[in-house]
Design a protein that fits this description.
Elements lengths: L3 E3 L2 E2 L11 E2 L6 E4 L7 E5 L5 E3 L12 E3 L4 E3 L2 H4 L9 E5 L4 E6 L2
Parallel strand pairs: 1-4, 2-10
Antiparallel strand pairs: 3-10, 4-9, 5-8, 5-10, 6-7, 6-9
């Protein structure tokens, strides 16, 4: 079964925007569409437990997963976290129990 896709909400300058809180699918996993520019995609953990971001499978994808604690946020470097090949190419994989996130693409 395919992972649940989470798409970033695109914001505009000087305009308030709504964002969607995405509940995690703990069975199939979750993937964030990551086609924007590095440094412009903000991931906010809105859940009650840590969200875990998997290391990517590209040349910079070394190390361990990144955990985002409850009520914390992060901007990722795509080279380290983006899937560069395989069925999830172009996505960042994320999971966690009782976790939910909001993903925003900054202008």
């Amino acid at each position: 079964m395919a992972a649940k896709t989470i798409k970033p909400t695109k914001l505009k300058f000087n305009t308030a925007g709504d964002f969607t809180t995405n509940l995690f699918d703990t069975e199939t996993g979750n993937k964030i569409e990551f086609s924007g520019v590095d440094g412009k995609i903000l991931i906010v953990n809105t859940g009650t437990s840590a969200a875990k971001i998997q290391i990517g499978n590209g040349i910079q994808g070394v190390g361990t997963e990144l955990q985002i604690a409850q009520n914390k946020c992060v901007v990722l470097e795509s080279g380290k976290f983006k899937q560069m090949s395989g069925a999830n190419k172009g996505y960042v994989m994320v999971n966690g129990n009782a976790a939910s996130i909001a993903v925003v693409e900054l202008p």
